Amino acid sequence: MSTPTIHRHSSEHGRVLAEPVAYTDNDRLHSSLAWLRANQPVTWVDVPPYRPFWAVTKHADIMAIERDNELWLSEPRPLLLQAEVEDRVKADQEAGVGLRTLIHMDDPHHRDIRKIGVDWFRPKAMRDLKVRVDELAKRYVDRMAEIGPECDFVTEVAINFPLYVILSLLGLPEEDFPRMLKLTQEMFGGEDAEHQRGEGGTEDIMAVLLDFFTYFSALTASRRANPTDDLASAIANGRINGELMSDMDTLSYYVIVASAGHDTTKDAISGGLCALVEHPDQLARLKAHPDLMGTAVEEMIRWSTPVKEFMRTATRDTEVRGVPIPKGESVLLSYVSANRDEDIFENPFTFDVARDPNKHLSFGYGVHFCLGAALARMELNSLFTELVPRLESIELAGVPEYSATTFVGGLKHLPIRYSLR
Ligand code: HEM
Fold first, then answer.
1. pLDDT at 336 over 60
2. Treating both helix axes as pointing N-terminal to C-terminal, what angle do 280-288 and 373-390 enclose, rounded to 10 degrees?
């Protein structure tokens, strides 16, 4: 069989996917992604300091790729990183000192590791946690009432509430809150100057990882000595084929839960509130019909799309939408684009709290489907169920500011003026 010719069609529009700052400007980002979906849905992006990749912008193609987890692997390139950081991460992993979390792994190891935490995210565990989540939601809405009539909703509410929820699920003490907050922001906001440690260079990124390791190594030792009824103990004492997980798998598990469960939810909460403020008719509708909260939460998660992308690498020559992709090359799955795909969503650029169906890909798809999706949904539900009926008025008190990142991000400041019952 003859090898198909590889046409690496690229376009200026594809550059947005490799430009952290493009994610701070929704109009520019979405107009480029709409162009790509219509004209070049599989496009070649070659923008240093990143290694080149294929960007996939159609919802159906992303689902097909995520469904076929034998053809498309997370290893060795699960997400977009600068080439230098990618090399360093790989070298550290090979030396046994680098983070290797669920998102980096493929089956069967991925399946074994995922099993260890999965019970803590099932409906029963969610029901047990709901009382605590509702209590925290009330605490933060009360706080808004106290500090009003103005606040930065991101720094006062959206950052703190999900972190407290995660710390509760893990079973960590509240006094560790400031430390975990700083570390997760440094880890995920690494490309944004406001959150990064130092100059944001490789050394700084590695120092952040080391701090995570130090904290969680101590936690593992203590939960192995004195197991308690929480996710941290399940992780510390998790076994595969009768053997305790390796130190690196254990540490990586804490890191993925603490980090993936925090910034993502913060972005959905603040993006959700911003959407309600910018669409007062939808806020009024939700107030009048509290039974729409379920669909409203899904729409907030679609609208904000906190996780911008993940990547997969082809294990053999293949093609996507007729575009040949050679073995070993990587595709970037643009969830941001999929969630505005005109072929899937009616009026995708309309924020509609009653949207149903809403087949958004904010939580991904397939074997890596977000482990914490039910928890994230519950958190948004608790917070907005507490907040919306108490809101007498709300408006922007400044310009919402977005973080510059190609991975996990959203609003970093949302100044609001409000009155609350
Ligand atoms: C609105 C909030 C959230 C969003 C948008 C989100 C999004 C995602 C996405 C896109 C993935 C990758 C899916 C894929 O590759 O197909 C993922 C994986 C994951 N998420 Fe979430 N997430 C959120 C909240 C949470 C929470 C609250 C937790 C837990 C505490 C969590 C834990 C995880 C874990 C552990 C994985 C890795 C799963 C695996 O690779 O098997 N996430 N999430």
1. yes
2. 90
Q: 78 CA to middle of ligand 1, Å?
A: 13
Q: How far apart are CA 78 and CA 387, in angstroms?
A: 37
Distance CA 350, CA 303 (A): 9
Which pLDDT tens digit goes with each residue over 228-268? 999 999 999 999 999 999 888 898 899 889 888 888 999 99
What sign has the CA pseudo-torsion 233, 235, 241, 244? negative
Report pTM.
Answer: 0.95
Pairing status of strand 72-73 against strand 239-240: unpaired
In a domain, 2, yes or no: no
Total of domains in the chain = 1
| CATH number for position 144 | 1.10.630.10
Q: Is the CB of 372 under 6 A from ligand 1?
A: yes
Work out whether the CA dihedral 239, 243, 245, 247 comes out positive or negative: positive
Give the contacts of 118 (CB within 8 A, at least 6 positions apart). 371
Ligand 1 lined by 268 (C-beta under 6 Å):
yes
Q: What would the 3-class secondary structure string for 249-275 be? A: HHHHHHHHHHHHCCHHHHHHHHHHHHH
Q: Does residue 9 lie in a domain region? A: no
Q: Is 410 in the pocket of ligand 1 (CB under 6 A)?
A: no
Nearest in space to 338 (alpha carbons), one of 363, 369, 313, 370 = 363
143: containing domain: 14-420
Please work out, in degrees rounded to the nearest 5, the angle formed at the alpha carbon of residue 198 by the alpha carbons of 192 and 204: 95
- Determine the distance separating the centroid of ligand 1 and the alpha carbon of 219, expressed in angstroms: 23
